[in-house]
Amino acid sequence: YLGNVQVVWTNGNNVDVAPRQDQPAKAAPAAAPVDDLPF
User: Fold this and answer.
1) Cα separation of 39 and 36, whole Å?
2) Residue 16: what pLDDT?
3) Are 23 and 4 a contacting pair, CB within 8 Å?
4) pLDDT tens for residues 4-38?
5) Which regions are flagged for Low complexity bias (predicted)?
6) Which of 13, 14, 18 is nearest to 4 (CA)?
7) Can you tell me whether residue 37 is helix, strand or coil?
8) Alpha helices in 1-39 (DSSP H)
9) If DSSP codes are grouped into helix, strand and coil, which group holds residue 30?
């Protein structure tokens, strides 16, 4: 859910094409900073 929001926020133009291929790729690196800042 947090990863999904970041994927859409990072790729505002490619929202339909990003969720399938960009979701797993961006979710991994995006999850690291997210857990580091708030939690």
Assistant:
1) 6
2) 52
3) yes
4) 555 544 444 544 544 555 444 444 444 445 555 55
5) 24-33
6) 18
7) coil
8) 2-10, 18-36
9) helix
Q: At what angle do helices 18-36 and 2-10 cross, to 10 degrees?
A: 110
What six digits make up the tokens of 33? 């900073």
Which residue's entry shows tokens 């490619």?
14
Q: pTM here? A: 0.11
Amino acid in position 6 = Q
Distance (Å, rounded) from C-alpha 6 to C-alpha 31?
9
pLDDT at 30: 47
Burial 18-39 (b: 16+ CB within 10 A, else e): beeebbeebeeebeeeeeeeee
